[in-house]
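ok so i was messing around last nite and threw this chain in just to see what happens. nothing serious, just curious
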Amino acid sequence: MRLWFTCRSVTMVSEPFDFIKVSLPPLLSIADILSVHEQDTSQLIHFFCSVAFADDHELGWDPSIRRILVDGHAQYEITLNSANGSSVYVTTDTLADFGAEAMRGRGTRVFKGYCKGDPDKTPVAIKDTWRASDREREDVILKEILADMARVMDKAEVEDAQKHFLTVRDAGDVVIKGKVDDTLCLLRGENPPSDCKMYEIPPEEPPSTDKLSKETTTTHTTVPSVSDFTVSHRVHIRIVFKEVCETLYAVRDLRGVMQMLLDVLKGANAR
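result:
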């Protein structure tokens, strides 16, 4: 048996142990997370009791998103807390979610939806993601870019440049039970101890046994030492944009793709 812990920043795993004999080894990562010690049966019992009686949000469920049924299709009510107050947005479609299934990383999902209570149901884009804790939120960065442009460009140039940026309608960090939803709190701001080992997960499918594959298939990559590993903490955020756009990979017209890339370059060179 092993004990596993995962969040958007890191995955940790214990050494294997015999849960019948309950001889617990030290963890491979931050020991304080699970607080189990060798030969201490009370710690294992305490762990399972903690999981059994934990609140939903303590087990990883997000209470700020509620699954609903709209015309027979599953949609979501997403709560956003910001300086403007609390708002609830109802999704109508998923615009982008590639890469969101990975256990670690930004986990970005973008929905099309509208603000609950809006009689016109004006479409907006709702972005749910986990930013790096040492970076500003996207709306803050955009505000700084526009401010810099206003200092070095005339009014007409600023207005033209703004066409290549999305309009932020609302934005804020996700707050659960009065606390910002981040990995810093989960991991207590720590990195794995230097005496831990990295656990290598084998590939999902075994390599081919044919001769060509044996000659061309490389072995597993070298696993770095924990001393070289630093946890990149993340903060859960949501941003609502006025514009509802089409993702670049969904565009099949080459002319349209080139025009989008040119617009991206214009926006990048505007600052």
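not much to say yet. The radius of gyration is 23 Å.
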